[in-house]
Design brief:
Elements lengths: L2 H16 L5 H15 L7 H8 L3 E2 L2 H19 L6 E5 L12 H8 L21 E9 L3 H10 L8 E10 H10 L4 E8 L16 H18 L14 E2 L10 H4 L44 H7 L2 E7 L2 E5 L5 E4 L7 E4 H20 L1
Parallel strand pairs: 1-6, 2-3, 3-4, 4-5
Antiparallel strand pairs: 7-8, 7-10, 8-9
Helix pairs in contact: 4-5
Length: 365
């Protein structure tokens, strides 16, 4: 093996270790993804793409749990440990919006009743006697999504009910926009990223050398323009270099996530380094007569295909259930569920909540 190839192998191994990918099979799979991604670029550009690769941050589940723990402690202070008149929802037009990924973790940290997490759109529940609503989200990027939601949905909530917005990660400019333009009682981020976390900002903490920074920006812009024309360096020029384990935000550079499952431009073949799955933004539909927990098992139409993105494939694993996500990586959750079944996220959440209720009751006895 030539020295340069050995050197590149060592660089990839170092990246995989920093991303906390430990199993041999996962490392082989991700290495193949990296090599496939590098093939998107001209040979003369690949050394620069190794530099980008080495700066990408994959936010670990341990870090997310730490953030959720911090946010939960803040909520306990605000509500003085009394959540009886509080209801918690993912931010968005659907109970399966991205914030729904973390509801169970919040419930586990807060150790509160399942009734506080209705897993319905908030307009579908009786708000009589409710004093506060908490909306959960993974990221504030540009702030556009949260401000749109606030303008459209918060006026439907009685004025005597407080509206809190808790978010794992916030870009500073987007956070300022939400605080200024949205009418939440309080916005509480676990982690705020300043201008220094924009990849090609003059203040960038990633690339200090101006010449190198401009060269990298030029390459990323060239391909980003083909992939996500209106936002070649990430939505609203966010220039992000971060990846969540459950998905990649569109604030991250499109060269990292663009592909057939994302909102990138159709007809441009691109191998993503980390897959981004676009979450449907349409509001929940009126009941069709089917029970809400009925699994969807056929991709009959494009509409059905979108709905299935809100479902998870479940299979047995010794002592656990492995939830196979659309993105890379699995989450292990202890629960007794039938093997090889498709279940809606709501039914899965209810099962986990029931298990947690039992554990909580036993711990208090």
């Amino acid at each position: 093996m030539p020295d340069k190839e050995k050197s590149n192998d060592a660089r990839i191994d170092a990246v995989l270790t920093r991303w906390q990918i430990t199993s041999e099979q996962e490392r082989l799979t991700k290495k193949a993804d990296i090599l496939g991604w590098l093939e998107n670029f001209e040979p003369s550009e690949r050394e620069d793409m190794y530099v980008i690769l080495e700066k990408i941050e994959v936010i670990s589940y341990a870090k997310i749990r730490d953030w959720i723990g911090n946010l939960s402690r803040e909520l306990k202070k605000i509500f003085k440990d009394d959540f009886s008149s509080v209801r918690i929802f993912p931010l968005g037009d659907s109970p399966s919006a991205s914030g729904a990924n973390f509801l169970y973790d919040f419930r586990e940290e807060l150790r509160i009743s399942k009734k506080c997490f209705p897993f319905k759109y908030f307009t579908e529940i009786d708000l009589t006697g409710i004093k506060a609503l908490v909306f959960v989200d993974d990221i504030i990027g540009s702030g556009d999504q949260a401000t749109r939601f606030a303008r459209k949905s918060l006026p439907k909530i009685p004025q005597n009910i407080n509206k809190y917005y808790v978010v794992l990660l916030a870009l500073k400019n987007g956070l300022n926009k939400v605080i200024k333009e949205a009418s939440f009682t309080q916005v509480i981020p676990a982690k705020v990223l300043s201008e220094e976390y924009k990849a090609f900002s003059p203040k960038s903490c990633y690339f200090k050398n101006t010449k190198q920074r401009e060269r990298l920006k030029e390459i990323c812009y060239k391909y980003g323009k083909l992939l996500y024309r209106d936002h070649p360096l990430g939505y609203e020029d966010s220039q992000g270099l971060f990846v969540f384990p459950h998905n990649v935000p569109n604030n991250t550079l499109p060269i990292i996530w663009a592909g057939p499952e994302s909102e990138s431009k159709p007809g441009v073949l691109w191998k993503p380094l980390w897959k981004r799955v676009k979450i449907p933004t349409q509001p929940p539909k009126e009941p069709s007569g089917k029970p809400p927990s009925e699994p969807i098992t056929k991709r009959e139409t494009n509409e059905k295909s979108q709905e299935m993105q809100q479902h998870l494939d479940i299979k047995d694993s010794p002592g656990t259930i492995v939830i196979l996500q659309k993105g890379d990586g699995d989450i292990n959750i202890n629960a007794n569920l039938p093997s090889k079944k498709k279940k809606p996220l709501r039914e899965l959440y209810d099962k986990l909540a029931e298990s947690f209720d039992k554990e909580l009751k036993e711990s208090l006895e």
